[in-house]
Structure formats: structure tokens, C-alpha cells
């Protein structure tokens, strides 16, 4: 039979028995199976979809070559497969966004995009927290963000990058608003910002990242915060009001004068807000247990604040389904002392191998090799350095990735997490 098109799909996948084989095409068997089923459903009887061995471009993940054109594609989703079939196979037009260049065997190292923001206003509250408003320095609309997201302020001259939650309405594109609490025991970033941020100043920032997503389809929402932990909660309240969703908010602090953004919180929440001022002496777990006891079925919980406060609330919610509890950590819990082992990382996009010594992180090893990788907190909290793992077992030590991100999306935080004990190598999408 004469076939109009031949498609060769790389389906080799790395296995524990063959760790150095053509293996970065993880997920390709599933995608190739979907392609064959989809082609049959479209009535494409004049094409043939073949399995192939190593196509020498496996560093990309799933790859295919379409003949007679000899066009190479890198694809990752069912939608990519649909686009190739609909646009190329049926429509005879190349899918340029998925095409590989002639002879290209490795992905290009990622190019990091930053925003240039201009400070449009700086206000200090009674509690000493700064309320800072930014606009795009080029006067363009700002990138969209979702409720609970944060941005990183990047001060290259002083060598720091700090994450701050966006407190304004997620639908706003003309401004970003953040709150900066002065942390006298921190690494100096908040003090520098308190001392130096001025109206009209231009500053670099990362694009919005969200590790504290709002589950918008939930039946109802319970939001609990203490102190500066209220900042991501504020944008959530704006969004929930817009959705006309069922929600309630409990805000804790030492006193009303110490409260951060209480007036804005009250405007956003109205009667849904309950404030608890305790001079720092209340048993937060008992209060949380009482609040949680009135929760309807299907409610989702969102918690943010100091470490001990969050532990108290989360422990009080011990009977809740884990999938219904959402957290954002501002401080890292000090892990139990573990013996680190040296291992190697293969940087797939650079065809480079680095040794990670026992006394350093993967991020440290990258810095030592003068390889730039975006990072911020260096404590497994902010999510900036999340990296895809192409092969290898990981010992996760972060406080930001979900179980799905770790197991299904194969992500890790390279600032704190390492190769699992006994594993001598990780292959990373860097």
C-alpha cells in the first residue's frame, strides 16, 4: 500500500536497566498511542505511524520526523499532536512553533525574561509595612496574574532577589501592588527596599509566579492568615468577590495597630472577615479547631503566615482531605540533619555534566560553573528555580511543590533538593 505520509516517533524511554539509553522521550509512548488513535478517528488511512529507535534528538523529549518532507517536531501534549495532524498532515502547512532546526539535537538554554517596573507610589503603614505600587516602565499593560501569585524584585547591584505577593485585583493590568514587611532578622533585602525604594525609581522583576493557587471551583473557601501572611489572601478575596463565591476570612495579629492591610482586607471582605488580636499569647490551634469545626463539606482551606502559626492551623486541619489544603510558606522549616552524598547532574540542554559535592546544592554547582539559572529564596519556598527532571530519583526538600508536581510533572527545586540516597545521577532540563 502506498502511504502519503510516514511518521517516525521516538518511543525509547530510559529505564533503570538501561539508564544511558535513548531515554529522554519520557511520555512518548502515551503520545504516540494517542496519535494513532486520533489519526484513525480522523479517517487518515493513507498515513503510517511507526515506532522508531533513537532519533538522535531525544534530549528534547518526544520527537518525530514526518516524511517525505523530513520535518522534525518536538511535541509534549495531546494538543500538540492534534495540531500536527490537523495543520500538517491534513492541511499541508508546517507547525512552525513545534519544528526543530536542521541538525538541532539539543534544546537551547532558556532565555530568562524580566520586567522593568517603575515605582508609582510608596506608602508606609502604622505597622511599618510598605505598600508599594508599580507600573510598567514602558507604559504597557502588565502580564496577567492569578490570585495568590507573587513577583520577585531583583536588585542585581546588591545581589539579591526577593519574592512578594501581589495584593491587588488579579484583573488589573495597569499596576502591581505588593507589601514589604521589615524583617530585621532576614538577609537584608527587606531593609534595603525599605531604605531605598523611591517613587519614580525603575526596578527589575520576574514575571508573576503562582504556587498558591485558588481552587475556584470549590464549594466554599476558608482563608486564614497572620501578619504579613495576609498579602496573598488579599488578591484571593478580590477574586472570590468577583466570582460571587462563598468564602470567609480569619485574620490574626498581635493588635489592630500591628495589622498589615487591615483596612484593605476589610474593604475586600466585608462581613466575611473576622479579626483576632491576641498579643501573641493565644493558642492558635484551639482557635483554628473551632473555626474549622464549622466548615461545610467540600470547603478549601488557605493558610499563610509565620511557621509556627501555620503548623498550628494545619495540625488543627488534620482530618481535612490533603487536596483541600493550600499553603504558602514565608519561612523554611529547618530539616532534620541528613547526610548529603555527592552526585552528578547532566544538563540536557547544554550537553554538560557537573559534579554536585556533598556540601553544596545543585544551584551552587551551577553558579560554580558560571551557568545562569533563575533563583530567589534559595530555601525551597518561592518556586523560581523549579526544574524538570528528565531522569533520576529525587529527595525533595522544598516546601512549595505539590505531590502532583513532584510525581507527575517531574519537577524539583534545585536550591534544596538532591538526588535520592544511592542515586548517582540526575538528568535535568537545563
Short description:
With 430 residues, this protein is an alpha/beta fold.
What does it look like?
With 430 residues, this protein is of the alpha/beta class. It folds into four domains: 5-98, Glutaredoxin, CATH 3.40.30; 115-205, Beta Barrel (Elongation Factor Tu (Ef-tu), domain 3), CATH 2.40.30.10; 220-329, Nucleotide-binding domain of ferredoxin-NADP reductase (FNR) module (Rossmann fold), CATH 3.40.50; 343-428, Ubiquitin-like (UB roll) (Roll), CATH 3.10.20. The protein is built from nine helices and 22 strands. The protein has helices at 28-41, 78-90, 189-196, 230-243, 262-269, 284-293, 307-316, 362-368, 403-407; strands at residues 5-10, 47-52, 63-67, 71-74, 115-124, 130-136, 150-155, 160-165, 176-180, 202-205, 220-226, 247-253, 273-277, 299-305, 325-329, 343-347, 352-356, 386-391, 394-395, 411-413, 418-419, 425-428. The strands form five sheets. The chain has a six-stranded antiparallel β-sheet with strand order 8-7-10-5-6-9. Strands 13-12-11-14-15 form a five-stranded parallel β-sheet, sandwiched between helices. It has a five-stranded mixed β-sheet with strand order 17-16-22-18-20. Strand 11 (220-226), helix 4 and strand 12 form a beta-alpha-beta unit. The radius of gyration is 25 Å and the shape is globular. Mean pLDDT is 85; it is low at 14-26.
